[in-house]
Structures are given as structure tokens and as C-alpha cells.
Amino acid sequence: NAGVMQNPRHLVRRRGQEARLRCSPMKGHSHVYWYRQLPEEGLKFMVYLQKENIIDESGMPKERFSAEFPKEGPSILRIQQVVRGDSAAYFCASADRMDQPQHFGDGTRLSIL
Amino acid sequence: AQSVTQPDIHITVSEGASLELRCNYSYGATPYLFWYVQSPGQGLQLLLKYFSGDTLVQGIKGFEAEFKRSQSSFNLRKPSVHWSDAAEYFCAVGGNRDDKIIFGKGTRLHILP
To answer: Which residues of B touch A34 (CB under 8 A)?
Structure first.
């Protein structure tokens, strides 16, 4: 897990604020995935990105959520105008190829007041 | 549709006893199969994976899993559990043409002293 770095580990926001979650993949990995985990649920795929490109965002809510993976710097998952239902653990994973195992970060736990 | 079913939400075993966690999948092609473990407050750690070849796969921490195509199963086993094995275990399926992994809802393992 140490290879994929997510920050912050915990994030508290009030309803209507913006949340920014960051993910630095393992060295050499150009494939990044974001998942959301709710209590008593497994991980739900949100989005898959390669450098500067969104490959698959089929699991991402159509509004308020966006993701990017710029040429330089970490991948960012952005949630605008947060609501209580956005409270969850958000995990990032990376891989060096699409068909290789994904390595996970320790997650960001988002709490909405 | 692709799916993963972990029939047992909670499993309790005594320390030193054997363990089997069940996983059934639905996938339209040859699957890639994974077992991940998640300790509280942590991300997911890969225990083992099956891509092809020998259907009995050895993983870390003394775990193994067997791919049975006829039963669409990939059950996880350990001959003798330790208290440190208490965690949540996720089975997942993907494929060489897929950009995402589908996770089961997890099985939480409790260890009795």
C-alpha cells in the first residue's frame, strides 16, 4: 500500500463546499482508478484515467464529480457542492498496465457535516 | 453482466482453525480473479491473483485460492488462521479487455481466541 499515496487521509467538509482528493500513483504507473466505499459495501468503480485522459468514467455521478490526471502532479478527484450522501471512503489505485493488478492507497475518508 | 458474489457477510473462526471464504463470479470471458484484504482504516492489499495456468494459486500470508471454472468459483483458503488475519476480504473479477475490476461486497473475518 505504501506506493500509492493519497491525501488527505481524512477530510471534513460542510454541505455545499468543495472536496479535493489527491492521489499519487506508484512510481512508473500511468493508470489510475478511483473507487468509493460505503459502509457494509464493497468498492464501487468510479473512474479510470491515464495521463491527461479519462478512459472510463461510467461509475462517476454525472453532476458535481470530476477527475483529472495531469501530465505533472497527482490525480485529483473533485466533488463540488458536497452533500451528506458523499460521505464515504474514496480509494485510489494504480497499475502499470490495464491488465495488471491494481495497487491501492490507504484512502481518504470524507465526512460531510 | 459481470458480478461477484460473496455469500458470507461475516465469518467467525477460532484461532488455529482452517478457513474458507467463498466467492462466485459471473463473467463473459476468461476472468482474471483477485483476492484483496483490508484492515480497518487501511487500503486494500492484494493477497493473490489468478490470470491463467495452474488453477491453485498461492498468495501471501499463507493464503491460497482455487479457480473452478465449472462452478464459477474462486474460494480463498488458509489451513490455520492467526488473530492477525481478522480483516475484511474482497474477491474481485476483471479481464484482459476490461478497464475495471468488479468487487464483491466483502466478507468480514472475526477470529476467536
So the answer is: none
Q: What is the pLDDT of residues B63-110, one digit of tens each?
A: 999 999 999 999 999 999 999 999 999 999 987 666 678 899 999 999
> Residue A45 has which C-alpha cell?
468503480
The Cα–Cα gap between A48 and A102 comes to 12
pLDDT in tens, B50-66: 988 899 999 999 999 99
Chain A residues with beta carbon closer than 8 angstroms to that of B102: 45
Are A43 and B41 a contacting pair at CB < 8 A?
Answer: no
Question: What is the full DSSP assignment across B18-86?
Answer: -EEE--EEE-SSSPEEEEEEE-TT--EEEEEEE-SS-SEEE-GGG-EEEEEGGGTEEEEEESS--GGG-
Phi, psi of A52 (to 5 degrees): 70, 5
User: Residue holding cell 481466541?
Assistant: B113
The answer, yes or no, to whether residue B113 has pLDDT greater than 70, is: yes
**Contact check, Cβ <8 Å, A59/B34:** no
